[in-house]
Amino acid sequence: MPNNIRLTRLFPAKPSVAISIAASIVILSLSACGGGSSGGYASTPTPTPVTPPVVVLPAVDVSAIAAADPGSPLAAAWQKGAFMEIYVRGYKDSDGDGKGDLKGVIQSLDYLKDLGIKGIWLMPITRSQDKDHGYAVSDYRNIEADYGSLTDFDELIKQAHARGIGVIIDYVMNHSAAENPLFVNSSASATNTYRSWYVWQAVAPTGWSIYGGNPWKTVASGAYFAPFWDQMPDFNLKNQTVIDYHKDNLRFWLNRGADGFRFDAVGNLVENGANAWEDQPENYPIMGQIHSLVNSYSQRYMVCEAPADPAGFTAPTACGSAFAFNLASNIGKAARNEVAGISAVSDFFKTASSNMATMVSNHDLFAGERLWNQVGGNLAQYKLAAATYLLQPGTPFIYYGEEIGMAAAANLSGDGKIRTPMSWTADNNNAGFTTGTPFRPVAANVSTQNVLAQLADPNSILAFYKAMLKLRNSLPSIAQGSYEAAFVSGSVMGYQRTFGNERTLVLINYGTNTANVSVSSLPASANLNNAFPTDGAATSADSSGTAQIAMAAQSVRVFVIK
Q1: Which of 46, 134, 346, 435 could form a disulfide with 128 if both were Cys (CB 3.0 to 4.6 A apart)?
Q2: CA torsion angle for 351, 354, 357, 361 (degrees, to 10)?
Q3: pLDDT digits (tens, 9 = 90+) for 84-128
Q4: What is the pLDDT of residue 536?
């Protein structure tokens, strides 16, 4: 999430969070001249103080939550299936107020199941100050009012589980909203009980610059640290009490049946100086504590956002999984037949953990434009990019609308243009997202790239996504297998996946010309049976384990090796 441009753009100037107490007013009265000694003044009376106003600080809820694991009905290794990243405000509106909600997500579960989705990542659904992206959390234990209630959340978990789909939720551990009662208390004075829960200095330090701005914000009681937005102050995560508070919040959701979490901005948890504020040594064991907590519940999964060090946070002593930001841009390059991109994609999982999470775009522009915009609407390239991340190791995350080729909004800028209402129909006014007026303009290509139109088209992007996810869901080697014998030959990338006794071969030709490829490292005289596409004659390897395979331009082929 580190993207100060996004955060400062979306919201108005901050409301005051400093609490000031009026100074006592002392009234002095002087007696009239005369009486007493000649020419003298009357004696000055004792000053009368005026009682200062009583400042009532909001109550905080830091109550302990004990673990109560309800278990998991999900299949083993469910988290190796594909996830859909859902921006709830922009997904499906169930009540016509123009904003998406949890009931709208429930109404969409059959669509997600039919697509082949095994997990859902809900962007922040807790109550927030920003009322938009949700990363300024004002209440960690309740649902954003626009989205519904805890009862709606419980129903979503129940209905998703009934369809074999897990649900993870976004959790913001690095910072809260300035309106969060904890920060309001913390900002009241230097002696407040919760002062040490946030990062404070008596006077703002100098020499700091993060994302092009000064992260220190001065108010009446001192200076607090808020690098993303002045309304999102950082927690002091050197304070174990604060970490324990977050653990209680996580148990609150895990006890309700949540299947895990996506953690925001884990590279920013601890700061040790103006030049030591990202990926500090303390961050990894902090997330290791959280990983242990999540793993203490059955069949749970967590993934972290750490753009500067995905591999480091994928370690089991840290998050156990992190987004492969360093792979995402190369997938688009490979799809456009750029040689460096093809080589980078081929090499990535030779060393990277198979627990990494893959993607081609997400809700932040710093991660890349929507895929449609990356490839300029080229349908063949779009499908090649989809095949690339859906067939490789890792856990793939599909940003909502990616499965139909949604574009950014034409008349918006910043992150808002890639967080538009989901294109369910061709309606240029509401995209079938709502019966009311959408909270934001719809995608630029809604008239052609929408669910309703593509459900009837066997050659659509949606149909291609279904085919790729069917492979992932039906072939354990694709979802969970090793990554072996990877090679690049011209514009063709190939590799083998093995799980148990099942072995598959994946070939992708990114080029615009037909290619004849020599594939080695196969079992001697093995039969290569077509898994995708399913038509065409079977191919065999010779006695040395080499097969000659013709690849059409911009095509994908998957074989089961027998």
Answers
A1: 134
A2: 60
A3: 999 999 999 999 999 999 999 999 999 999 999 999 999 999 999
A4: 76
Q: Which of 380, 362, 423, 338 is nearest to 553 (CA)?
A: 380
What is the rounded CA–CA span in Å between residue 123 and residue 118? 17
| Cβ burial 512-536 (10 Å sphere, 16+ → b, else e) | eeebebebeebeeebebeebbeeee
pTM of the model: 0.90
Contact 248, 241 (CB under 8 A): no
318 CB-near residues (< 8 Å, 6+ apart): 283, 284, 285, 287, 288, 291, 304, 312
Rg (CA), the chain: 28
Dist CA 309 CA 209 (whole Å): 20
- Tell me the percentage of the chain whose pLDDT exceeds 90: 90
The answer to whether 418 and 380 are in contact (CB under 8 A) is no
Rounded distance between C-alpha atoms, residue 120 and residue 24, angstroms: 56
Alpha helices in 236-378 (DSSP H): 240-255, 283-295, 310-314, 325-335, 339-351, 371-374
Residue environment code for 345-373, b if the CB has 16+ CB neighbours within 10 A, otherwise e:
bbebbeebbbbbbbbbbbbbbebbbbbbb
**Residue 492 in tokens:** 């063709």
pLDDT at residue 79, rounded to an integer = 98
Q: Which two tokens stand for residue 65?
A: 């939550």
What is the DSSP secondary structure assignment for residue 116, as one 8-state letter? T
Query: Per the structure block, which two tokens stand in for 176?
Result: 């809260």
Q: Which amino acid type is present at position 68?
A: A
Other beta carbons within 10 Å of 44: 10
Residues 252-282: tens digit of each pLDDT:
999 999 999 999 999 999 999 999 999 999 9
Distances (CA, A) of 496 to 500, 503, 508, 514, 558: 13, 7, 12, 21, 10
Task: Give the dihedral sign, CA 144/146/147/150.
Answer: positive
* Residues contacting residue 322 through CB under 8 Å, at least 6 positions apart: 266, 303, 304, 305, 306, 309, 310, 311, 313, 314, 356, 357
Using alpha carbons, list the distances in angstroms from residue 70 to 161, 253, 256, 259. 13, 11, 7, 11
197 pairs with which residues across the strands? none
> Taking Cα atoms as reference points, which of 458, 457, 453 lies closest to residue 424?
453
Structural tokens at position 228: 């993303």
N-terminal to C-terminal alpha carbon distance within the chain: 45
Q: Is the dihedral of CA 75, 81, 82, 85 positive or negative?
A: positive
Q: Would you state the structure tokens that stand for residue 553, as one six-digit string?
A: 């331009």
Please report, as a single letter, which amino acid is at residue 79. Q
Amino acid at 180: N
Tokens of 292: 């242990």
Asked if residues 384 and 378 have their Cβ atoms less than 8 Å apart, the reply is no
Domains and their CATH numbers in the chain: 481-561 (2.60.40.1180)
